[in-house]
Design a protein that fits this description.
Order of helices and strands: HHHHHHHHEEHHHHHHHHHHHHHHH
Low-confidence stretches: 1-50, 70-78, 589-605
Helix content: 55-70%
Shape: globular
Structural class: mainly alpha
Radius of gyration: 24 Å
Mean pLDDT: 82
Strand order of the largest sheet: 1-2
Number of helices: 23
């Protein structure tokens, strides 16, 4: 275990040897450690940092960037994660993280407003997610195959504090989401058991549905933490075991969805598709902002990098392949459900099941219940898996206690991290109705997506160009970051204007300013292409810019309390970083920034 420093000075302030300032190509596709050279002046000098006041020391530490050394030829270590995930397992991880019970619920609830046009809502959301997926795919292909996902990319492209903020926003989403899904899974599981006549009505509410005490402050659910313990044990046993469970459950879920679609096709009445957009195109667009979150799952695949057999080749396939499958399944279900019954007759809680029940297809409702249980199980399993890998990454970098950096020498899993995330989810799910907090979720998802898209742009900039000066003391690199921030703010303003029906002029002005910033990014920066065989996001910087703009547009559609959560959690994260992270972070220490690969030869470039 890495010993924690006894001095309160940051790690970089106690180093006696000055790091060489040789500038390298920024993240050249053949040497990942070149990232540390790009804009090296953003990191403080190790020989001159001692004795700085607290605030200046905090700012200097916050601007550090992670130097990643390519470790593909590292010798085997008994304490490293083991590479056992092939391309099929990665695709299924992405599908498992994206498609839960929502495919049987959200498709119908959104259709009540958008009508049959919900199909277009899912298509628009899928197209927007493709932009994010392309950005994730490039970074997953170019980075060394280590855990971290959006946090890792942000750490290398921007700075340490921004990476820690991304982690905290994502982690709150994951913690609350896991507890909420566990309670839903417990409820669905009880509903499935109640299909047996002898069980129906005889299960106390505190076992699976939740029973409130003390005026609703506490909501006891016994089954939810039990299910979380079972899944945590499976994840602790090893990635192969958990991947096998995910593969089985996700395959079962896909098969059930396909059966449901084919069973419903023969009950479709095309007259139900007219009018296709009864409430206009705005209702369709609003629906796309709701269903956008049905596609999340990229970060789950990206965080599997250290356990993928051929990460540079398989991760982009896993990211884009899982998204494509999800788009097809969602659109197929939408067409069937809106064709079977008029959209005005769809129920709120179980629209798909009610539609088949109305047609006399009772056996299909049983399949839907099984599919819902399988869908929630895989979503929960993958969510817990991703959380542990994120904690592992921060533990290695010193931003969290080194306990989280431990990997079991036999099981090759981050045992302490996995148990921690399981315990947090079990406590939340067992004692609190966290489903009431669902309206403040998705903040971390949109934050991570936006920053990852910006990372693609900054890591493509030529080193020589970014070191030159722009206007006054502003460097070209800083000008580019300012343009990215401008695009994000314009997307947020456009989203606010659309949400509250402000004058169209506000949206037009936001678009014009965003276009001007995009032109500056296009013509004032020098971009380095990605050499084969690495995956390259097409249309840089246009595609990442569109991704940032649309993500922030969606951010503006979130509940106001979600905005409060973003600000408050960010302030708390800054406080935690100032009190702990800046002193123990070690981005340049080889034993923390590198990863031991267990008995795997280097992947051919």
């Amino acid at each position: 275990m890495t010993q924690e420093p006894t001095s309160l000075l940051p790690v970089w302030a106690r180093t006696t040897a000055r790091r060489p300032r040789t500038r390298h190509h920024p993240l050249h596709v053949t040497t990942a450690d070149a990232m540390e050279g790009e804009d090296a002046h953003h990191r403080p000098s190790s020989s001159s940092s001692s004795g700085r006041p607290f605030l200046s020391g905090l700012c200097a530490a916050a601007l550090r960037r992670k130097p990643l050394a390519s470790r593909t030829a590292t010798a085997a270590s008994s304490e490293g994660l083991v590479r056992q995930l092939g391309v099929l397992e990665l695709v299924l991880i992405g599908i498992g993280a994206s498609i839960g019970a929502g495919i049987f619920v959200i498709t119908g609830t959104v259709a009540r407003d958008a009508g049959p046009g919900v199909t277009i809502s899912f298509a628009l959301a899928g197209a927007a997610c493709v932009l994010n997926a392309l950005c994730y795919a490039e970074l997953a292909s170019r980075f060394p195959a280590v855990v971290g996902g959006a946090y890792l990319y942000t750490y290398a492209a921007f700075n340490e504090l921004t990476a820690f903020l991304v982690f905290t926003q994502l982690m709150i989403d994951y913690h609350i989401g896991a507890a909420s899904i566990a309670r839903s899974l417990a409820s669905y599981f009880i509903q499935f058991l109640e299909l047996i006549p002898a069980v129906k009505g005889n299960v106390p509410s505190w076992i699976g549905h939740g029973e409130e005490f003390f005026g609703g402050v506490v909501s006891v659910n016994l089954l939810a933490p039990i299910l979380l313990v079972i899944l945590t044990v499976i994840l602790c046993r090893g990635v192969k075991e958990s991947s096998t469970v995910n593969t089985f459950m996700t395959t079962l879920k896909i098969v059930i969805v396909i059966v449901v679609v084919f069973a419903g096709v023969f009950e479709v009445d095309v007259s139900n598709w007219s009018p296709f957009m009864p409430n206009g195109f705005k209702a369709v667009v609003t629906g796309s902002t709701v269903v956008f979150f049905a596609y999340v799952g990229f970060d789950a695949v990206a965080n599997s990098a250290e356990e993928a057999k051929r990460p540079q080749r398989d991760l982009p396939i896993g990211i884009l392949g899982s998204l494509l499958v999800c788009v097809i399944l969602y659109i197929a279900v939408c067409l069937v459900i809106t064709g079977m019954v008029p959209y005005t007759l769809l129920g709120e809680d179980a629209p798909l099941a009610e539609a088949f029940a109305a047609k006399g297809l009772k056996f299909v409702t049983v399949l839907i219940s099984i599919g819902a249980v399988a869908g929630l199980t895989t979503t929960l399993l993958v969510g817990l898996y991703v959380q542990s890998r994120l904690y592992l990454g921060l533990g290695r970098d010193g931003l969290l206690p080194s306990l989280f950096a431990k990997v079991h020498p036999t099981l090759h899993t981050p045992l302490h991290s996995q148990i921690w995330v399981g315990c947090v989810a079990a406590v939340l799910a067992g004692l609190f109705n966290v489903q009431a907090l669902s309206h403040i979720l998705s903040v971390g998802t949109l934050t991570g997506y936006s920053v990852v898209s910006a990372c693609v742009i900054t890591l493509r900039w030529s080193d020589k160009a970014t070191s030159s000066r722009s206007f006054g003391s502003l460097s070209i690199w800083q000008e580019g970051v300012l343009c990215l921030v401008t695009v994000a703010l314009c997307g947020f303003v456009a989203g606010i204007s659309y949400r509250f029906s402000y004058a169209v002029a506000f949206i037009i002005v936001a678009f014009v300013i965003a276009i001007a910033a995009s032109f500056a990014l296009q013509f004032r920066q020098v971009y380095v292409p990605v050499d084969a065989p690495r995956f390259s996001c097409p249309g840089v910087p246009l595609v990442p810019v569109l991704s940032v703009f649309f993500n922030m547009f969606l951010f503006a559609q979130l509940h106001v309390e979600a905005w409060y959560r973003f600000v408050i959690l960010s302030l708390i994260a800054v406080g935690v970083y100032a009190g702990y992270g800046q002193y123990y972070s070690a981005p340049s220490t080889s034993d923390r920034s590198s990863v031991a690969y267990h008995g795997v030869a280097s992947e051919a470039a």
